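Recap for those who missed Tuesday's class. We walked through two folding examples back to back. For each one, the amino acid string is listed first and its predicted structure tokens come directly after. Nothing is annotated here on purpose, so try labeling regions yourself before you check the end of the notes.
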Amino acid sequence: MATKVKPFGPHLRRLRERSGKTPEQLAELIGVHPMAVRKWETGQRLWPRLDVAARLARVLGVSLEKLLP
């Protein structure tokens, strides 16, 4: 039986909001354009590169495993 994968975007948005950061603040902290964060959150881009995901996890205070939905 296949496991259903939860979308990354809503999960990222919850983590970002829980950290109290705006998309613009998060983008600046991880070194990407704010549009990249918005596209991840809305599902227009599915997943960041691994190095960016590692920065996301560090800035949001979670492990890379917890960054996965």
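Example two. Treat it independently of the first, because the proteins are unrelated.
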Amino acid sequence: MNVSAELLRRQCAAILHAWGLPGDHIEAVTHVLVAANLRGVDSHGISMLTLYDEFRRNGKLTLKPAVRVVRESPVTALVDGDGGLGHLPGLNAMRLAIGKCAASGVGVVGVRNANHFGAAGVYALLAPERGFIGAAMTATWRPGIVPTFGAEPMLGTNPIAFAAPAKRHPPFCLDMATSTVALNKIKLAALHGKAIEPGWALDDRGRTVTDAREAMKHVLLTPLGGTPELSSYKGYGLATMVEILCSTLTGASVAAIRNQRDPDAARHNVGQFYLALDPKCFREPGEFEREMDDLIDALHGTKRADADQPVLVAGDPEQACFAQRSREGIPVSDELKATLRKLADGCGADWVLG
């Protein structure tokens, strides 16, 4: 069935309220999750509530955290999430970066001691709303990416989002993990007994596997590129860059050494990194946006390899999905509906999806 964004927000909010989250956290989580669903990034939408429930039941989540700024300069800041979900610290940090950018031309804000924050693109896209370039990145609490030539996971999937404003066109928005594929793709293949592509995952000896069920036994994802021959060192380097900016810089836990350093930590201590940059520091007002339009037009006008497949730029599919789902509602499968109903019944939340 299709459900309106507002109804899905109400259901999400009802569950979070029953868990005991404060109102500002409920607002932040529902906004980010449903925004992901609207853009077609369903892997990071309301289905994430099952993971957050696992954190809650395992005692890995501060339900009423005190999010606060612990360091600050005119153009930088460090936010502490106090062990809660990452959505409110992330939105606060991105908005703080945008405010500093408005005053000084650039704003850079890190977050420590947070948790999963949903889809990175939701945060980066806040900057183009003010005419700025935005970037958002996050580390993860659990390593899944295997370094090139390695045979054990050391880095998270460590996503990068970058958004830039245009004038006629919607903002350019790149939102990508630094693994070759998302773990959910392998999970779905295993569920349906399908093979996966060579280079998506490895076994515990560092050899590529195509049996999805075998891959799920090890959960060893390759960095973007898949194999050394296809330049997996580039994805490995990008994942490490995100780890440095989000974890080493902010004082959050580093996935590769978390278990050795602090195996009994009460919280996951995930780090994030946000940047806002004003194009007017480099160009006259409007010049950047006009040339962004020209660039996007040129890319769209590329000679096609397949006459039936237009050339797209990052953000095009999500923008089209947003428009469609805003009109027609967000698809909710029977399986997801049953999962949400179970979550609601388990915590005594109101059921509003019908």
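Answers for example two:
DSSP finds twelve helices and twelve strands in the chain.
The chain has a mean pLDDT of 96.
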